[in-house]
């Protein structure tokens, strides 16, 4: 954005913020949590879903005061735009496909028009408007935020403590050995790049085989526009290599500091420092499938992320000059992968998983709600007869399958399972492909109306 365009855009935002007509909603979640699907669905519901039968718990729609939403005309021309239409095309194609994993950040602005419910505005105005700003980014980049609270040495210790855990230890042995053989006085470009490549391969192996969540730095997995930048030559030295000064230690410390200053801080400032409301999406079902260590690491990753945000009440002054998040929706995503009577347990599990992360964050002043939802429902829920009894089931296409299946995916534990339960009872929740959709109709969902009511309902009165 040019500086002049930037000033105009900021000025308009401040004006709208002061008038309480602007909301910046941050959709946060680790990679694969469902951020892109959530934003795509949210935009689709807000631009097409004006039928009370489709969004019964979204009060502005239920009360028939919603006049519609449109993609805003003030979308900044020089910022990457969220590929909304492209995502819809994936859902619409035959066979339908999920939108691809995100490789860079993008933004979408929406203008929502509604009739005020009561008060002076209702008497004087035929309609009011609310501007909504949504951003999307690769989940991997979110885990860079906690790096700001550490220096290179502390980060390296943290990484090797993590890599020593049983589910990571075997995979990290080869890289540890490679580091042990490295000459700490050798700063040759080729050597630095080879060590970085080995570390980046290790991160990919963790992600693919160990069911892990904490991968830092995120730009080694999804570099975005930074591919090839020297500061991405970054990996943790072994604890014993940190105690004495060395040229390699000094070089890596410089890269770490540059990474924090030129990548992580601007990312935070640009996207998260001005959030008014936040959605934290968590894919609890995939973590259950991946086992006990994955579940623990998910909890640790959420705790680190929650510490990076600023929460507080929403006075007008705070909203304009020092925005803080004052409403947080915690959502267990992909609830359509289980039968509806399991949703209660899924929500309780999410709450228990988040108990510790919330306790460690500066979170007290925010309002929150937890729920299980599916941004884009890929299954039909129903019942089958078995031994004269009605059993709940879902029907959908498993990823890659040509024929639909009818199945009971299993019970969701309402508390964090014990190690014993993980051993004796492996979870196998399915992953479903989207059914081919008519995108002229609002996307099928589970509880997106509850989510919209919590996030936007009070601003549309
Ligand atoms: N059944 C179902 N699957 C979903 C839903 N939302 C997401 N998924 C699945 O989860 C995968 C990841 O969803 P995304 O929206 O791409 O996740 P993301 O958080 O944007 O991930 P990154 O872009 O990698 O950070 C999708 O490809 C789907 O397989 C949903 O509402 N229902
Ligand atoms: Mg995405």
Automatic annotation (TrEMBL):
InterPro entries, A to Z: P-loop_NTPase, YcjX-like
Protein's name in the database: ATPase
Organism of this sequence: Alishewanella tabrizica
Lineage: Bacteria, Pseudomonadati, Pseudomonadota, Gammaproteobacteria, Alteromonadales
